[in-house]
Amino acid sequence: MSGRRRHIGAPERRARLAAGQRLAPSARAGSAEEVAGSLVALHGTDPATVYLAVGARLRDPSKTVADVERALYTDRSLVRMHGMRHTVFVFPAALTAVVHASTGVAVAARERASFVKHLEAGSEHDAAWLADVEAGTLAAIGARGEATAAELAQDEPRLRTQLLYAPGKKYEAWQSISTRLLRVLGMEGRVVRGRPRGSWTSSQFRWALTPAHPELPAAEAQSELLRHWLGSCGPATEADLKWWTGWKVTDVRRALVAVGAVEVELDEGAGFVLPDAVEPVTTDAGPWAALLPGLDPSAMGWQQRDWYLPPELRAPLFDGAGNIGPTVWWDGRIAGGWAQGKDGVIRWRLLADVGREAAAAVEAAAARLQEWVGEARVTPRFRTPLEKELAGPAPAKK
Question: What is any Pfam family matched here (predicted)?
Fold first, then answer.
């Protein structure tokens, strides 16, 4: 970009977030596919996150569970698979080939090499034996359509082969190879997680064969994934892009050139937007409140977060590994956190003084969440200090 770079300050970034991330009431979506398309990727490590993230962005949240299950397991318009940073996400089906080629292939190669090395060091088996077990496993999945690891082991008993994990550590344990083998096959794009056993909060998934998709050149796929993400989350810094994708900085820079990204000035320094997103955002969504789940894409979308997360609020909202818990948002900023108590009640707390209007709006958002969650119980996989405190015993009535 020649001449002086246009400055995009924090207020405009928050306005873009409200609309692009489907968080302002006027921007809410009509389906799970619309939400996923806008966000590119929904964190899937914690199964409940997918439903809660979609529910916060639908015009009619009461339809969330049925709509997400339809998209994931009936229409297959959304797919749960490994993606960036070795993490499980839910992607639009149209992006599965892009994610696989841009990110999954390289990660899977490292994961397979590590698995084979561990197998050969800890047993009498080798890569050829593992390939034979894989063939049996894939045949069993094909015959069953969908199956859990335990069900697959009935057809392919070698999946029960035990390996010692973390030898010499306090947490060392013998485990069957099934979990790790299915993880490798998932990273390689050969299997995907199917319908879980139990409710929408369950993490015990069945496995299914991956639908056929084209094999794309890595550079082409990286450019396409970055174009989608920058269109949803831009502007972003180079550090944001490197962190979110997990790529080398050279890959990020090559993809930025390929999509014609335009450099702009952010409060943090240089940032990038797509060519059609340089002009100022003129739509004012008005102040809005939202209760978002742990690992929500809007909370985890950027590495540099000061423009929407005051640094002084981080300690109670993150666990020790850097995973964010359930958050309360007011007008584009994180202002507190929430949890569901054992009695099912949604409890929230503001950590910043944002005024009575904000408190009333958050109360309404909490009631909206309470209504659609109903009798379900949601405990985040990654517990944070504030979430654990709010989820504890109900405060005594005065």
Answer: AlkZ-like
